[in-house]
Amino acid sequence: MGTAVFDLHALAPELILTGVAILILVYDLFIGDERKWTLPIVAAGGILAAGIPLVTLGLSDTTRSLFGGAYVVDGFALVLKGIFLGASFVVLLMSAQYVEEGDYHRGEFYFLLLSAVLGMLVISSARDMISLFVAIELVSSPTYLLAGWRKRDLKSNEAALKYFLLGVVSIAISLYGMSILFGVTGGALKFTEIASWMSAVPSGSAMGVAAMSIVLILVGFAFKIAAVPFHLWAPDTYEGAPLPVTAFLSVASKTAGFVGLFTLVYLAFPAQSQVWRPVIFGLAIATMTVGNLIAIKQTNLVRMLAYSSIAQAGYVLVPFAATTREGSLTAETFASSVTYLLIYTVMNLGAFAVIIAVARRTRSVEITSWSGLSKYAPGLAVLMTFFLLSLAGIPPTAGMWAKIFVFRSVISAGGLANGALAAVMGINSVIAAFYYLAVVKKMFFDPAPEEDLEAIPVPASLAGAIGIMAGITFVLFVIPDVAVRLGYGASLV
Amino acid sequence: MSNQQVVQVIIFGIAAALIIFGGIRVVTAQNIVRAALYLVLTLAATAGLFVLLLAEFIAAVQILIYVGAVVVILLFGIMLTRAPIGLTPDLDNESARIWGLVAGLVFLGVVTFVLWRHFASVPALELSAPDSGANEALGRSLLVDWVAPFEAVSMVLLSALIGALAMARKD
Amino acid sequence: MEFPLLSLIIWLPLVGALTVALIPKDNKQAIQTAAVATTVAGLGLGVWLFTGFKQGEAAMQMVEAYEWIPAIGARYIVGIDGISLFMVLLTLFMFPIAILASLGQIQDRLKAYAIFMLILESAILGAFCALDLLLFFFFWEAMLVPMYFLIAGWGGKRRVYAAIKFFLYTMLGSAFLLVAIFLLAWMHQKQTGSISFDLHSLLDLEIARSTQLWLFIAFSVSFAIKVPVFPLHTWLPDAHTEAPTAGSVVLAAVLLKLGTYGFLRYSIPLFPKATVELAGVLVVLGVIGIVYGAILCLKQSDIKRLVAYSSVSHLGFVVLGIFALTFQGIQGGLLQMLNHGVATGALFLLVGMIYERRHTREIDEFGGLASKMPVFAGLFLVTVFASIGLPGMGGFIGELLILAGTFLRNPWIAAAAATGVILAAVYLLWAYQRVFTGKIDNEENERLSDIGAKEILVVVPLVVLMLFVGFFPRYFLDRTEPSVRQVLTRVEEKGHYREPEIPDPVAAAEKPAGGDSHGGHGAMP
Description:
The complex is a heterotrimer of chains A (493), B (171) and C (525). With 493 residues, chain A is mainly alpha-helical. Chain A has helices spanning 8-30, 38-60, 75-102, 106-125, 129-147, 154-184, 191-200, 205-224, 233-240, 243-268, 273-296, 301-321, 331-362, 373-376, 378-392, 398-413, 416-445, 460-478, 481-489; strands at 64-66, 71-73.
């Protein structure tokens, strides 16, 4: 235990974000109601400030390893942190007006949001079981509370309680698995130690225990990404939570779960792909299919998007499940997952931003209340169509490339099982197109309700969120190379 | 097996039985105050396990914080708010209970089978008796090697605290 | 660097769409002018393309190649040969007509309409010119959204249903296509070490027979949905009937050709072995399509639906010609693609004109229109003749070549297909008779006036083209010949296949025709 020399540069994003989070808490105490509107600005400033060291770290182009390899800042961490900060910034833009009009506790709201983002930054760099567990807790506990932020609404209470109970149970199962793994490996905590133990002990009785613990650990993260059959919380929680929180959960929180899964599978358990690959194979197929099939029946737009986001998680899982002939993991499969996540984040946030904008008028997220939207809010209808097309993977949107890259990685892995995977995914994208189009149809071809059909005013921050997301979705459609490069840059393989 | 090991196994058995019993009662108790008291039992018995693992400091922390602080605050919370004390049968769900039991038993069966079958051959971790510098080592470990997760945990607690306040506050 | 004429042609309509997007939506005059000017300018570029095309060359011409997505090896490669030349020209020709025809009809949301039409034109042109499979897929998919909105936004009563059906069918097809494209690219990586979607490098791949079969099926399902080949045709009557006139024109004249074009450009050259083995299946499906489509036509009471089903029948001819795998067959198929585009496009235009006047398409509602609308009736009759394939019309040459090509392969199939010609004459002339001849027995028709100069102007170029193809088919066939030869040579070399030769009359007398019935008794290992 020598003297500690912290690489402050590497930790700067986390430190800045912590500082701003606590600053918000204190600042909130000293300002009156008339100044509360500055809170989201401070929070957004904090996120942007945390992004600065991210850029400088990216430019320095060296992998930094802290605490004996327990905390690593590499390409993967940087790209994912960038996604998290970007997504949270947009969620902030979406929440500013929403939180103000809803008369919620604002200072606490932004504090909790930033805490969760901090957890996401930590999880991107966590390379040992303890950091991983703490980080996923830091992501989760603020979001449990945020989901119930509309206190007087029973649905919101239900959302928070369901999310909390199921979340705690599943993360406890993960923790149980981690503790067993700790025992069986003789005290290995860091992913590198676990990986070398696993490749050194090819089989035998210890491996049986380790295999079980791998499966148990994965359960907690399967919950976080709402993979079927660990998805039951998602629709209720998404429906009940305040809309910006739902957007945050469906994007950032889900991505955090994926980050955990990525690092575990590719860094800690690469040698034991025969254990986790079948699990993920099953999860991927079930998640895509069940998510899409149930989404068809939904009459509530947010629930529909909840199920659609379940299905989308299935697409991200697909490259994991792809078995290469050599059994090894390729940079290509990894990159396609990250690219998908990146594009999914953008398009899903865009869709939610439009929903928030429209719900300000319709006061409802029932799909029927969107009838004839194009008559009185043509801009929003067109943008919503754009995001839905992207989710369906249809040009002219980035979503098309996201799907194509995943397809490519599965197919280039070859083999019958992967072919089946690609086929299931292909069929699913047709099913998905069906329910996305149903919304498009409602907006454009159904009669508008009788009431006043004035244009919907969109607050500047929300308009900014929608605009940024639409812009990125389109730019990535024109030059997908950027997304692919980020994906490869993030590769852990 | 030496005498010392026999004693260890017996103590472990007692502590484990108390934990399981307490845990089950926490969930099944009809009265929330009783549930809290069973929680005390569970947490105290867990402290016993820490002692067995030669981690006296952690055992002490466990008693002080969990038994002494957390549960007491919990009880205060129950008393001071107007939460209903007593039977709450309308919150029980019979069919869910059965399925929960089935799922729990299956899980228990699988885990027991795997551990029973395979864990015996896993070499035990070497434990060393704590010397006078144990707490110093612990402190170093927490604040040097594991400072990142340690600080992250403090943020977890802070956010839980703030969030709980915002949730519970009248407005 | 050569002048990027093809790129200009492909992207000009998109630029037009962006221009239209900038015009305020109330300024309908400016929107119309911009849309028409864009498409007419495109046609002008098409003339330039035609004159610049080197006749007698089989290879791709005017090729442009740039990096596109280097990370996955996709490139922007466009070029044309004899096979795609006329498809591009047909597209450039039909779009101004379709837009001109819709000028009076579309009043509601004209701006969005013009934008979608122009985007659609860009996507179609791109798909015909693309020589990189991923680029092709990109354009292929890009057609979906504008077409969906055109049908669902400006179509008939059941338009939304028809639009979604069209969309889902096509998406299903493209899922297969995408998988197959990536499999090819991956095999390229295995064999050469670098990933590529370039059609030319993919043609050099050595693909095992069984793999070829699977890939051929994947490609062909996708194309067969587009054509449509029986039994994947069920989306077509709905989409064609419910689409607005210009949409139907574009669908029938151009979009369907992408399917048959795909067969010729991708399925056959990439998978020659599979082509030889599975050609029989497609030939049979083609014949079923011809006869089945024709029979359905006989039963239709809605004249637009009748024209829609006639497409199934006519495209059956094209499929038959292509998969007869004879020089005459493919040449005829290509010519027939052109003919069908022009003739059916004209039929949809004419049906649209009468629908505008009477707001019904039921054949029984009409009768004796010839006396009130002589010019209209005359133009309709000429178009019907072209569609039937009367001598002097393009359709005659096309069908003759197809039947001749098929006859070399299998006389019985040719005989079965020939019934389609007869049936076409029956259903089209019968429909003509019920609509135009006799006395007017429905009062509503008394008030009808003949079509105006504007409408005549729209149809006349199509009629001229029908006649031109009928009298001077060499103009087209000479330019397609080298490319068709090249495709066939490739199938012969790689597919162990020998094209049936035109029998020597003397030998034929000794050995009855039909001996060569099962084409392609290649020595398959």
